[in-house]
Amino acid sequence: MVEIQTLAPASIFGQIAEHEHEQVVFCHDKDTGLRAIIGIHNTVLGPALGGTRMWHYASDAEALKDVLRLSRGMTYKAAISGLNLGGGKAVIIGDAKTLKNEALLRKFGRFVQNLNGKYITAEDVNMTTKDMEYIRMETKHVAGLPESMGGSGDPSPVTAYGTYMGMKAAAKKAFGSDSLAGKRIAVQGVGHVGTYLLEHLSKEGAKIILTDYYEDRAIEAAAKFKAVAVGLEEIYDQNVDIYSPCALGATINDDTLDRLKCRVIAGCANNQLQDENVHGPALVERGIIYAPDFLINAGGLINVYSEVIGGSRQSALTQTEKIYDFTTQVLEKAEQEGTHPQAAAIRQAEERIAAIGKVKSTY
Ligand code: NAD
Could you list the active site residues? Predict the structure, then answer.
């Protein structure tokens, strides 16, 4: 009889086992200074596709935690969006402004190539389509390439469109109308996606309050979209209708929960709930409608998937528009089941993975 060993939660294998990741690859290269982790969560539906993030993590443990959380989110994102993709993600440890260069990116590309297509990479925070070009020099398992190279280009506008659709669906649930005209919206992070989202919000006549880690970006965006720029911490204390996290994850946590005065949370950031089992129900208790992050930020993945299967940007946008209906359905389902929206969305994704896993069990 095989003895099943219980792993300490803090151990590396304990963390990998917690959410049943299939494979985690640690990449190291002395010459380029590359330190990266590739997390492959689940490949039942297809190859694990997910972007590469470059970030100056405070510790290796923090980087591992991030890649595990992000890759799991990709599994759910693909599954709930009806895509034939598994979930994966990669992180490169270090400051993108000083460490990112062609050699480092190409070395990373070789590690991706070694996985033989089990993992397909793309853009994420601090990565550009140009960076994908460098990675493409070493592996064909990369998506999100520039349109000039036959790729689907920057996924951010499509992600922003899906986030906007999800936000409108959540607004309809909270306010009885999906119009964002006159709604006070706090946007945290005005990078690639955040800026495209601002275009939609400003066109619709929302009153925008924003912030960014880079003050110059915040000031520039505020001037362009007639918005009010506030400090990094101040964003949580704004008297707004909607809070839109568009920077990094875990911003809904024990410290911020009581400060949020909004009725809706809808943003593009991945893993917005620090602990979904704690903060998901806590939002319901406070009467705040949470649009599940992996559901409403799936536009970028849908766009990249269209590149993998040879679709067009228009077909990706058409599919992304359905995020409005999917969000409405998940919010209804959560209410009917007496659970929180993130749990309802995860359950829906897991049901599809289980069903398709059975389809695939015979040749
Ligand atoms: P980006 O790097 O272009 O933008 C992120 C912005 O957030 C930057 O301007 C950064 O300065 C700012 N920021 C970082 N920490 C902050 C903080 N504490 N407070 C305020 N601002 C802060 O990245 P992006 O591509 O726009 O992605 C934004 C988020 O959306 C990420 O969580 C990413 O994983 C997620 N996402 C992106 C896509 C996509 O298509 N790009 C798809 C799905 C999900």
Answer: 89
